[in-house]
Amino acid sequence: MRNRIFLSAVLACSLVAAEEMELGTIYVESSTIEGIAPDARTEASTVNDINETTIEEIDPKNINDILQTIPGVTADVRSDSVEIHIRGVNQQEFMWEDTGVAVVIDGVPVMQDGGKVRGINVDEIESIKVIKGSAAYLYGADASAGAIIITTKKPKAGSGIDLGAEGGSYGYQNYRARAYKSSDRYAVNIFANYKKEDGYWYQTSNYMKTGNGKFTYYIDESSDLTFNVAVTKGYEETTRGGVTGITEARENPKGNDEDLAWGKDYYSDIYRYSLTYNKDFSDTANLQVIGYYYKDLYNYKSSPQDTNHDDIEDTYTRDNDDDIKQYGVKSEFRDSIGDFAYMLGLDIGRREYDKYRETIAQYSSYSWWTHSYETYYVGESSLDQSTEDIYAVYGEGKYQVTDRFTAVLNLRYDYNKYSVDVLDHEYDDKNDQWIDTRTTGSEEFRNLTYRVGATYELSENHILYGNVATGFRNPSVTQKADNPDLDKETYITYEIGLRGNLAYGLRYQASAFLTNTKDIIARSDGTYNWDSDNFANVGDARNQGIELSLKSDRSKELSFSLAYTYLNAYYTSHDPFYIQGITDANGNPLSYDVTGNKLPRVPHHMIDLIVNYRFLPKWNLMTELYAQSRYYADETNLVSMPGYGKVNLRLDYNLNKNLNFYLKVDNVLDKQYFRTVYLFKDSNRDGRLDAEDATITVDPGRVFYAGFNYKF
């Protein structure tokens, strides 16, 4: 309540302090279909945009290279898969959980598997819009922390062909081609890309093949139809890169064959199809309808075991198929009537998950919690078929209360129906027979989310904005079956900020935020106790901080962009926390009081600074500095990991308007910092939890890239 009163008081005081100024016609920019650029005068949330020019300057090799330029956003990249967090929300989770970040590509919601998304090819990205704070008012449960809206390259005016190629360290190769053509009746864009690398770490070779096309047909002067298809085929030898223990990370950062990755030979086939209809009824009235189909087929081997009992893992014992399909229709209508603008939306969709596991090698595994061995037999399998049906209506209203003050209200009502059908095929060695066990269930949830916000034009160049937004996360069917009293997680975000222009062409955006997470859903006897299905609402968390974005005029000879984040994320309450393998003197799981502890893997400070210097007409030097402070490896806060900084350079030579050569050096100072750190069990079984139990991914250090782009 205090946060709401504070927000209202600031906005009210601003109304008294400033003079009247004409805003003109107002529009609703919020959309789940199209990545519309926000109007700085009337956008009540913190929204960051990255355009094609900035992306080309950064020359990203993965999505994190782009997202780290935005305050408050972090990404854990493991080759083709990426886990994105916004403002540290849900950062306590890193395996198979939802991060609360909706990822949308060309209007198609990219389904996440365990908080990770695959098939994001940075070479096809034209722009990115990031909504921070809960965006559940647009996307439902997927967006309780925010949303990443990606738009791939669109047809340009006229016709042409773009070609590019580059090579780099550790066998990196990237080849891309794009053709586009437009006329009065149609526009078409076709993109193809192939990239591969051997990888720095042991067993990390990978490749990605991408092809997509956009075809827009102009039905008449006020309507058009766009068909979009994208296909990505990928392979990863493993998703590893991690070694166990800080000593191993320093002495053998690449890993070796005695430390097998959890999974191997990952094959993915990803398909995105969409058809979008756009109709302008007037200068302000517009209708958009999109139908989409998304399919992600994933196969890999997993669970290495020591089958010959020499204390060295030697055989992958499981075969896995993870298939995700989703399809649906979204529709939005928007219009402006005088001082009032509105948008009405409809979201209907279905998601299907098919997960198949089969044991392909017999082995025995020791359980830390039962203190006994369990044998798994060849042919044992599990088929988990889950579905989610989504029916939602949403809308936004903007009202220009005065020439300077605009009020914003968003509402979304979600009806979600979940069903699960699990078939377990297991061998009963006591009775020498195979047993099939089927488990079914379903759950329904209804949720209303909102955003209430306002903007106030302090002067021609400075806008004050603020909002309160809510979000939610429903428990799964199996979680609910194990604990009928399990409540949904809820989120509420308070935010206030300033954006505008300063002297010398500087643009800025600064915000202060606070997100309260209530009723965190986790295993009651340890977040990563794999042998337990006892889920409960284990506690609450708070994420608060400030963000600053500052950019200068890109057309100048010398320009820069700065992104800074201060983030304090901690548990306001939590049930006793357990670590796999840690016991007391009597052999019982040892509990930890983590109330007040920091959320893991959340540094207090993050900064990204990019400086562009066009020192000659055809030459440009880009320098990027990224740094972050130390953080804790897990909830107990017993082990902290050092912060780090790195410097990237890119030198461009533009021979003419059609041909460009470049050289890029990442991590110029060759700092082998710890990219990611996970700690969830006593890995070396010495009875205590310390840095030698952490799974650590070490950055490769200095890497080189060189390439060219040619347009004709």
Describe this structure in words.
- The chain is mostly beta strands.
- It is built from six helices and 39 strands.
- The strands form seven sheets. The chain has a 22-stranded antiparallel β-barrel. Strands 1-7-8-4-5 form a five-stranded mixed sheet. The protein has a three-stranded antiparallel sheet with strand order 2-3-6.
- A hairpin with a 2-residue loop joins β17 and β18.
Features of this protein?
globular; mainly beta; disordered N terminus; single chain; 712 residues; 6% helix; 5-stranded mixed sheet; 22-stranded antiparallel barrel
Write the layout of secondary structure elements.
Layout: H1 2-17, E1 47-50, H2 52-58, H3 63-67, E2 73-78, E3 81-86, E4 101-105, E5 108-109, E6 116-118, E7 125-132, H4 136-139, E8 146-152, E9 159-168, E10 172-182, E11 186-197, E12 206-220, E13 223-236, E14 242-244, H5 246-251, E15 263-280, E16 286-305, E17 315-337, E18 340-359, E19 363-367, E20 372-376, E21 381-400, E22 405-428, E23 433-459, E24 462-473, H6 477-482, E25 489-501, E26 507-523, E27 535-551, E28 558-574, E29 577-583, E30 589-592, E31 605-616, E32 619-628, E33 631-632, E34 640-641, E35 644-654, E36 659-666, E37 674-678, E38 695-698, E39 703-711
Parallel strand pairs: 4-8
Antiparallel strand pairs: 1-7, 2-3, 3-6, 4-5, 7-8, 9-10, 9-39, 10-11, 11-12, 12-13, 13-15, 14-38, 15-16, 16-17, 17-18, 18-21, 19-20, 21-22, 22-23, 23-24, 24-25, 25-26, 26-27, 27-28, 28-31, 29-30, 31-32, 32-35, 33-34, 35-36, 36-39, 37-38
